[in-house]
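so the lab meeting is tmrw and i was supposed to have these ready like two days ago... anyway. pasting both below. for each one the top line is the aa sequence and the line under it is the structure tokens. i havent really looked at them closely yet so no promises
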Amino acid sequence: MAGRRINRSRAGIEAAVLAVMMVIIALALAGIVWLFASTQTQTLARSAKIDIIDAKVVRLSSTSGAIQVTVKNTGSVQVNIASISVTGATCSVTASGSINPGGTATYTGSCSSMPNPGDRVAITVSGTAVGTNEPVAAVGQAVVM
């Protein structure tokens, strides 16, 4: 009988060691998953994005007009606006400065070689994210008034 008791006590020790090892392995795997997820979350949280929320092109005469473009920074980092171009009209818009996350900026300019009222023009706003120099762009349309 003494032999049986020794075997039973060894079996209990082996089960306890196995349980402790499984807990250690589970904790290590959980740590690896947490590290990966937190790194991905930080990477995705820093995004640079802009949107054109309003654009107006007004024809003042057959050869001149005015443009007004409002841009919103919908990302999580500051963005420097570099240029605003208009396809379908010849416009000059001074685009400079930066927009903070959640902020808006309005840019105005003058146009020559205007299309007819009711025609559409394409507007492209481009810039870079502060810190990463990641290029950002937004494309929109406006109807000439």
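ok protien two:
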Amino acid sequence: MTHLIRLRRCLRVFVVVALVAGIYLAGGMAQGWVVGLMRTLQDPLGRMVLYGGLFCYILLMALPFVPGLEISLLLMFLFGVEGIVAVYFGTWVALCGSYLAGHWLSLRTMAAALGWLHLTRGSEFLLSLEGKPPDEILRRVLARAPTRGVPWLVRYRYLTIACAFNLPGNAFIGGGGGIALAAGMSQVFRFPLYALTVALAIAPVPVTLLVLALLPGPAS
């Protein structure tokens, strides 16, 4: 019986991994298609490409494990200052939207997912947190932390999530959309502080590009 449960758990983990890989590949294909279409239509349609590309970028950025980097770079390259500003606010909207979606899903959804994977202890722990205020959830998470480093990461969670958004290769831990979704589901982030954290965390690259774009070119 134990071997059967382990086999079922392994199969379900395989299904989850395959699903994540499929989402990532499908997102990459969708991004490539949008980038190609934007390049084709940029001259005849002009600003409509900016709005359409921005909409696709927000949608892809908000989804877990789906990349959106190529669209953002192309928008900034094609439209300069206007594209940089649009990508910055589009990123903020996408990450805040993912957070709100996760907050709406609640801990019960995450607990059900863990239960489906036969991770009973984790599922029961999350169910015990449902309906509790954020401070109580935070206290219980810290009490259950397995290592010394985890309490520090949780205690300074806004700094942690800001670093996670800028972590190279963060697509492997869900990408910006997945990180934001998990933050919302955790119930330990207050939205005003989260929104401010996102605004600051995503600012360095757009601000740098904006400064470079506004600098006067070399005199001829």
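from a quick look at the 2nd one: The CA atoms of residues 3 and 114 lie 19 Å apart. The mean pLDDT is 75. will dig more after coffe
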